[in-house]
Amino acid sequence: IKEVTVEKKRHTENVIPAEIPLVQEVTTTLWEWGSIWKQLYVTNKKERFQQVQSMMYDLMEWRSQLLSGTLPKDELKELKQKVTSKIDYGNKILELDLIVRDEDGNILDPDKTSVISLFHAHEEATNKITERIKEEMTKDQPDYASYSRMSSSPTHSLYVFVRNFVCRIGEDAELFMSLYDPQKLTIISENYLVRWGSKGFPKEIDMLNNLKVVFTDLGNKDLSRDKVYLVCQIVRVGRMDLKDSNSKKYTQGLRRPFGVAVMDITDIIKGKAESDEEKQHFIPFHPVVAESDFLHSLLSKITASKGDSGGQGLWVTVKMLVGDVIQTRKDYPHLVDRTTVVARKLGFPEIIMPGDIRNDIYITLLYGDFDKYNKTTQRSVEVIMCVCDEEGKTMPNAVCLGAGDKPVSEYRSVLYYQVKQPRWMETLKVAVPIEDMQRVHLRFMFRHRSSQESKDKGEKNFAMAYIRLMKEDGTTLQDGIHDLSVLKGDSKKMEDASAYLTLPSTRLHIENKAATLGRNSSIVGGLSVSSRDAFCISTLVCSTKLTQNVGLLGLLKWRMKPELLQENLEKLKIVDGEEVVKFLQDTLDALFNIMMEHSHSNEYDILVFDALIYIIGLIADRKFQHFNTVLEAYIQQHFSATLAYKKLMSVLKTYLDISSRGEQCEPILRTLKALEYVFKFIVRSRTLFSQDILLPVITKELKELLEQKDDQQVQEKKYCVELLNSILEVLSCQDPVSIDDNDFLMETFIMFKDLIGKNVYPSDWMAMSMVQNRVFLRAINKFAETMNQKFLENMNFEVQLWNNYFHLAVAFITQDSLQLENFSHAKYNKIQSKYGDMRRLIGFAIRDMWYKLGQNKICFIPGMVGPILEMTLIPEVELRKATIPIFFDMILCEYQRTGEFKKFENEIILKLDHEVEGGLVHENKCLQDVFVSLVKGLLEKLLDYRTVMNDESKDNRMSCTVNLLNFYKDINREGMYIRYLYKLRDLHLDCENYTEAAYTLLLHTWLLKWSDEQCAPQVMSTEFQCSQTYRHLKENLYEKIIEYFDKGKMWEEAISLCKELAEQYEKEVFDYELLSQNLVQQAKFYENIMKILRPKPDYFAVGYYGQGFPTFLRNKVFIYRGKEYERREDFQAQLMSQFPSAEKMNTTSAPGEDSNNVHRFHYSRPVRKGSVDPENEFASMWIERTSFITAYKLPGILRWFEVVSMSQTTISPLENAIETMSMTNEKILMMINQYQSDENLPINPLSMLLNGIVDPAVMGGFAKYEKAFFTEEYIRDHPDDQEKLNRLKDLIAWQIPFLGAGIKIHERRVSDNLRPFHDRMEECFKHLKAKVEKQYGARELVLVSFLTPLFHFLYLMPILFFSSKQKHPINAILVPALLAKRNKKAFGNISDFFQLIWYQNAKYK
Can you give the residue ranges of the C2 DOCK-type domain (predicted)? Predict the structure, then answer.
């Protein structure tokens, strides 16, 4: 069982395996090659056989690798290339269809590719395979497996999936995960923040099993680090001390250090260890022991020594991925999706691609030193950081604690209890819009926190610090450590930006201004700089828009100070290379903007050129060689200076001229080294210029060239057509022009027919041919709509146009590329799933167009006989069903016009003769036979029908009518089929065959659906023309059918239809008034079933033998369903009256069956074998039983149906005796139940039944069975019958309690005048009972009410199912009894049914 997806397209469902498409392609290819491989073996082509075998082995091995799903991305890509190359090469040498692919090796979808692109793809694929074959002829195929894995990607990512966190905390926690370099004691990535709840689950329950992060931007330098750890710092959020009781008097929400977890991932990073997304790693947890255990310090301790975690820690999955975040989402979609958190490196990746805009500033709280002043103990300092504007207002959501967390407006640090010099080492990110950078600053507030809530509420900020993010010269804050000034004073003034922004922000600033500050400096605006307190942070700017270099900033913003442009261009050469490549796109844009905006002069041309050479030289440096791809991408995607080529070529020529004269030219060497990219800029600039200037001119020139009629310019015209391809790509998106011109349609039909006949594409271009055919099909159908609208009416009818249409459609349907039966199974399935069988669609269109011609059909007889004949020879069943009726319509059309069909006759004979000479009919002999038999069958049925039209025998007319309507059903002529259904219905009503009339109309309802759509004309009937929708028509038909079933006393069938109507009324149309009427009607039918006596129908087998009978009866056997109370003699007389000259052949007995809805019948007759005992005929009475199976079940649309099969079986005398005894016992039991249930039944039937058994003088009883079978002679001659003999004895023994029960009932009901009769019968029974119980044992029968048999039934069911498996004897009789007696009227009441089951259970214990 394979996983699949279901693609719904219009009204069809396409089941697609969930395997990757290439695996499906390999499977299909192996299937197709396999059949060819066998044929190569049969034809003894050993060399090609071995070649194909080798290729198939390769594909099978590679398919296994693809299915394994364990290959890395680069190896998978390499394997896909091998597979597609092998498939394409193999298809070519085996002369199979060409497969066209995109750049990634995927099969091109013609639905998503323009026709011109598809054509070019075919050309390219053909050329590649041709070259490959040439290579194969000169050298062996290269061994792809020998190529080592390439890991040259400059960017890598680490995927981490947090499976679980197990730790006994009891409060909420924050898990900060990051990458750590233990050698340099630095964090190298952003934190990934997971908020963990106190109950052991993530705070956001939706994140459960979805805690995934990708640490990206890792370069080769990061991979070459000596050690890399994955660390997790755990911060507890709650009380100051976990020992404090969890009550309101203690301060809550404090961020307290709790511990760390560390995992060495060096080998995973370097690819030396297993990197599997399924393997889980355990990272042990190490708690903070003392307040002096700062989290960052604890990391270095843990990496040096390992302790016991007590089972507490993190469970994670780790895998190394190749590529940046965009590439990993593409290559590893099962791991990295849009919900996966991305944690970037603290710093730039080794390559910054154009479009990778970043503006992140990382702030790390390093350490502080705070005096306790008037406090008795050291302070527990909390740092509160926010981003403020120049007015001191906090900027909302500008701080992010970690990747995966929502931004906040302020950040509160971890709290170390009463520590004078806390070391936080906490890193967070500040994200501010570039336009706000000039006016914002960071503000740090310091507050003492108390464990007591009452005291903590009274605490205020005791100090503050701040720092601007941008300098006065416009550059960004320098990376590195910043020793900030700690400001003390009024806590309210600390929030007043005008008070503190005038004070120095760093200690370095104070020293540079030579400010002399005492222990507590003088107060400025209510604040002072404290020399007793210290606070240090570090910053790291990762921005592609903000630079820390003054010279580069001046160049990027050259328009602000154009007078400094020359100076800034010259300073560019001394800017650090790393800073330049970070802003590569912006720098190049600035250079070319300077060049273009000074296009009228050459003042800055040389300076810009030299700056460009410097940048190209930087990228050529090994240190920045990965930026080659960035420069290439810039030239192709972002560069837009259309006139730059002039200035670049001018400066280049100047340098070359100076150098060629032997003069000193210092930049020439750098220029020559950068010449490749200089010319790339020149060529790209010139190309852009050409597109803008020349494109309008091209169409004019092409038009003039194509209109020339000079045959010598074939090559030029070819180039013109190729150039037009790109233009057509655009024009193909426009709406088509409406078609209303007769001449245009005529020419188009002729052109299409010509293209179809010429096979313009190579035979292996299957996709191209099918796309062309699909375009033709859509066009032909579209043109057909126009023809129906404008060229069909008498005044506008165009014979030649319609003739061209029909010949084009036939040419389309008979072309070689659509004859699917001639293709391999794989190709057949491929075309069927993608395009379907277009022949069927166009065939249906031809049929519909033909019938729309009306009286104009005669114009195409006999001209269209030949083309239609070609269509009928196509071995497609549905197509033949659609087109063969056209022949009959031609015959009818010509006959109505001329009274004969000589033209059709002559033409069909002529064309058949022509096809025979051409070999087509010989090759399609079976189709010829089908066609001839269809024509012959129709003519026979029509002649039969005409013969009996005036016949007095309605039975014969019914038979012929059924034959005709079945024929029209087979050839899908619904209108004719329905017409004859109603003819048959009317015949039944004339004969009062209401049941058969109901079944006949039921066939009409099977063509309808419960829908509110308008009825199609062909499914309507004249009787119900008022019905507009399918639902209305079907409802009216059901009501009429129910009426007929009611008259025919087939209430079970009527109830079934009532229930279907009731469901519609209740659940679809919500018409409860009709529903109530329906339910009343059902109740009436149920009452009829229970109260009205329905005689069981008799069935008669009739055979018609001899030439005197009509062909539809001749030499056939039928089973007839008799009418109510119809005796065999009456039935025979009625048959003989129809055929007075026929001779009646008497048989021993007629077939009988006591149930409806059956098609299997049998009758039995005695046969004497061996010596006959005149005193005991049972010993030699064998039974010959004949079984019939009819074509359809009775009752049905006729009162008789033909017998389609007959079989005979023989029953031995002993088996006959067992069967007779079993039936007798059941008859007694049934009668007992009837008399128990109904006190009004006459006693005579019971008297006759009982007396006939207990009085030997009447029937002889079972004594003759004893004489025939219970003798030593019989047992000796028939040793295998012992089990059957025991069964017969058991049945005899069981008859006694049944008879006893019957006699007791008889005693209660017998009248006084019959009392002597009863007494004699009772006396006989006593003697019989004594004799039987002595010989066969006693049996006991308890007559019970309804409930007791129900319990017996429930008890019996397990035995029944058990015995059905074990072939217990009970199953042999019980199951047939249950099936045979399921007709409700076979029992007096439900008690009869259960008594029968109880009896069978008791009989077999």
Answer: 358-542
What's the rounded Cα separation, in Å, for the pair 307 and 704? 88
Greater confidence (114 vs 1332) lies with 1332
678 and 817 belong to one structural domain = no
Spatial CA neighbour of 1054 closest among 1076, 1077, 1081: 1081
DSSP 1158-1172: EEEEEEEEEEE-S--
Q: Is residue 774 domain-shared with residue 903, that is, in the same domain?
A: yes
Q: Are residues 168 and 224 in the same domain?
A: yes
> What is the CATH classification number for the domain harbouring 389?
2.60.40.150
Tokens of 405: 């967390």
d(CA 107, CA 80): 12
Closest by alpha carbon to 1159, among 1123, 1197, 1201?
1201
Question: Is 711 within the bounds of a domain?
Answer: no
Of 514, 530, 510, which is closest to residue 522 (Cα–Cα)?
Answer: 530
Closest CA to 368 of 356, 380, 359: 380
Residue located via tokens 């550059």? 475
What stretches of 715-855 adopt beta strand conformation (E)? none
- The type of residue at 718 is K
Name the band, by pLDDT with cuts 50, 70 and 90, for residue 11: low
Q: Find, among 803, 818, 933, 914, the residue nearest to 874 by Cα.
A: 818
Please state whether 1261 falls in left (phi above 0), alpha (psi between -120 and 50) or beta: left
pLDDT tens-digit series, residues 805-820: 888 888 888 888 888 8
Domain extent for 1313: 1213-1403
**Does residue 1193 share a domain with residue 1238?**
no
- Give the count of alpha carbons within 13 A of 436, CB side only: 18
Number of domains in the chain: 8
888 and 981 together in one domain:
no
Q: Inform me whether the pLDDT recorded for 739 exceeds 50.
A: no
| pLDDT tens profile 878-887 | 887 777 788 8
Last residue of a domain, one of 113, 142, 171: 142
Tell me the pTM: 0.43
Q: Which one of 313, 343, 373 terminates a domain? A: 343
Task: State CA 7 to chain mean position distance.
Answer: 5
> Which residue has 């190729």 as its token pair?
722
pLDDT at 685: 85
| Domain assignment of residue 296, yes or no | yes
Residues 715 and 116: their CA atoms lie apart, in Å, by 19
Other Cβ atoms within 10 Å of 147 Cβ, number: 10
433, exposed or middle or buried, with CB in 10 Å at 0-12, 13-18, 19+? Answer: exposed
pLDDT in tens, 1297-1317: 988 999 999 988 888 888 888
**pLDDT for position 1405:** 34
- Average pLDDT over the chain reads 78
Buried b (16+ CB within 10 A) or exposed e, 540-559: bbbbbebbbbebbbbbbebe
Instruction: Judge whether 708 lies within some domain.
Output: no
What pLDDT, on a 0 to 100 scale, did the predictor assign at position 410?
A: 93
Q: Does residue 734 sit within a domain?
A: no
CB under 8 Å to 900, separation ≥6 — which residues? 894
Answer for the pair 368, 422: CB distance below 8 angstroms, yes or no: yes
Cβ atoms 752, 780 nearer than 8 A: yes
Cβ–Cβ under 8 Å, residues 1259 and 1193: no
**What would the 3-class secondary structure string for 99-148 be?**
CCECCCCCECCHHHCCHHHHHHHHHHHHHHHHHHHHHHHHCCCCCHHHCC
Cis peptide before 862 (omega within 30 of 0): yes
Same domain, 107 and 165: no
Question: Torsion angle, CA of 139/144/148/151, rounded to 10 degrees?
Answer: 120
Check which CATH number belongs to the domain holding 1077 and give it: 1.25.40.410
Residues 1236 and 1356 grouped into a single domain: yes
Q: Give yes or no: residues 369 and 473 share one domain.
A: yes
